[in-house]
Structure formats: structure tokens, C-alpha cells
Amino acid sequence: MAAVCEDSLRGTTTQTSPQALVHLSNTYRCLARNLQTDKIPADSTIAAVMSLAIHDDLRGQPARSKVHIDALQKMVQIRGGITEFLPRDHYMIHKICRADIEYALQLGCTPRFYRDEFPRELIRSMSHKLISQNQPLKSADDIQDPVLKGVTADLISVSRLVGNDRSRFKFKPYAYQEILISVSYRLLRRHPVPYYGYENSGENALHLALLAWTTTLIFQHGRVQRLTYGLLARELHRAIQETSNTGSVRQATLLWLLFVGGISVFGNPYKAWLMPQIQACLIALQINSWQDVRDILTRLPWIEAVHNRSGEAVWLAVSASEQAT
User: Fold this and answer.
1) Residue 147, CB half-sphere, CA atoms under 13 Å: how many?
2) pTM
């Protein structure tokens, strides 16, 4: 497990050693024996299953996580459900939820669990200290779907609260996790990936982009080699193309969709498509500076302290490709 985590942080790939494979095999055997009984599973058993799920995700083999997610679901059921865990177990609850969300994002299925403990009162109390927080969230006004509108408004509030100053990011770790788990579950419970049921293609693109946005914080932050989300990338690409062709969103929103995809799930295979799309959008908006781009991106969820560096890298890549043509 340590070797896999180190590979993820360094961007390297190390073959699993024979000794590690023996330990994995023994772990599988012990867990299978424990799960054959209906005894209340120990915390250590749950932690071991979560570690195995993380191991497969970091190895780029999310489909193999099904057996671990099935085991987690059974253990949670034996305990009486996710709501029956004690408050002091919030760290374990968060790990269970994150493994569940990751599996749903990778495989395009409905999550097994649900948790919505978004710290609205905490954010509201912190927001009163900032004048900018009192401005209405006009960027969410045009959204018709109530869940999508609520998630967008919540994330705009968080983005404004943090702004461009990391020192203002004073959420306690549990509150930070609750924000990301809440919005991920609300989106995935409403519509798992892929979904084509929104009446407005722009809202479908927004739904997918918000999920992509959360991956920049939950699963990729701090890693040299970020996790890939092939299904989410394909669906977001398709949704943005449809939105662009139908003109169902404003150009400013389209620019945000493209940049969010660029800093999250759109890897190298999408660059040849992404660069011209952003260029066309910038021309339509008559924008020629990174500062102007930032002003537009921050109208929707965009944490400057977190996203500006990768966003500016996309901007510089677009500028370079434009000069090369």
C-alpha cells in the first residue's frame, strides 16, 4: 500500500513485489473468512477493506474495487447503516463515503450510501465577515433543476469564502470533507454518470462539470500523477459539444465548463479539441488576458487559491497554441 501511494505522489509506476502479493492474498483470505459471519465487523476490518479499494483505484484498476465496495456495503449494513456510526467515527465515515463516490464516478453507477452534512451554518457564519459574500449568487439564478441549483450555490459560497488567500481556508478537516462528500452525493444521487435526462443540455454539462470540479479536491490534490476519470471525461466532452452546438448556455458559462474540464478530467487526448474550443470562446467574449478569464471563472465555482495555478496553465497553453497557428 505504501509503494502504491508513493507511486501516486511521485508519478511513477512500480511493479507489486512478490512479497506484497503474498500479503494481499492473505488479507483477502482473512477478510473473506470474517465476512462469512454476521458478527459486527471491527474497525480494523473496515479499514482493511477501504485500503484494498484505494489500492485498486491508485493502480488504475477501479473495476476490481467492486468486491471491496460490496464488502463495505455488507459491513455497513451489519452495523445498521451509515447513520449508525458514532460521531467520533467521522474519519471512517468519510473514508467509506469517498471510496463509494470514487467507485461510482469510475464505473458510472449509483452510489451505495448517501450523506449530506454540508456545513451551511459554519459557512454562513464565516461569510458574514466578508462583504463580498453578501452579494447575490446570480450565476445560479438561471439553473432550473433544484438540486443542481443548490449545489452550484453552495460551491460558489465556498469559493468566495476561500478566494485567493489560502490562509482564509480555515475549515476543519471534517468540515472540508463534509462539503465535498455532500455535493458529490447530491449530484450522483440525482443523476449518476452518464445521464441524459436534463431538459437543458447546458444543465447536463454543468452537472458533469461540477463532478469533475470535485475531483480536483477530493482525489487529485497534491498528487504528481492525478487519477484518470475516463467515463466522466467522455461524458463531459460530449455534453460540452452538444451545449456548444445548441447554444444552450452563455459564452461565459461555456468558458467555465471548458476550463473546469481542462484542470480536471481532460487529459492529453482532449487537448487537440479543447484548445480551439477555448480560443473560440475567448474571441466571442473579446477576452485577451488571464485576469479577464479569472473574472469570468469566479462567477461560478472556482477556488482561486486552489484552481488558479492549473487554470493559468491552461490559459498559457491556449495562448501558445494560438501563436503557433
Assistant:
1) 15
2) 0.86
- Do 141 and 262 reside in the same domain of the chain? yes
Strand, coil or helix: 58: helix
Residue 113 domain-assigned (yes or no): no
Model confidence pLDDT, tens digit, residues 173-200 = 888 899 999 999 999 998 999 876 787 8
DSSP state for residue 84 in the 8-state scheme:
G
Distance of CA 2 to CAs 8, 70, 224, Å?
Answer: 10, 24, 16
In angstroms, the CA 323 to CA 308 distance is 22
Please measure the distance between the N-terminal and C-terminal CA atoms of the chain and give it in whole angstroms. 46
Q: Is the peptide bond before 301 cis (omega within 30 degrees of 0)?
A: no
For 56, 66, 104, 194, 197, the CA distances from 231, given in Å and listed in that order, are: 17, 16, 10, 8, 17
Q: Is 103 helix (H, G, I), strand (E, B) or coil?
A: helix
Contact assessment for residue 242 and residue 233, using Cβ atoms and an 8 Å cutoff: no
314 and 268 in contact (C-beta within 8 Å)? no
Helix, strand, coil percent content, the chain, rounded in steps of 5? 70, 0, 30
The answer to whether position 98 is within a domain reads yes
Strands (E), the chain: none
Instruction: Please provide the DSSP assignment of 185-211 as one string.
Output: HHHHHH-PSS----SSHHHHHHHHHHH
Domain shared by 230 and 160, yes or no: yes
Specify whether the CB–CB gap between 208 and 239 falls below 8 A. yes
Give the chain's domain count: 2
For residue 239, what pLDDT is reported?
95
C-alpha cell at 178: 463534509
> In 10 A of CB 283, how many CB atoms?
12
Last residue of a domain, one of 67, 84, 107: 107
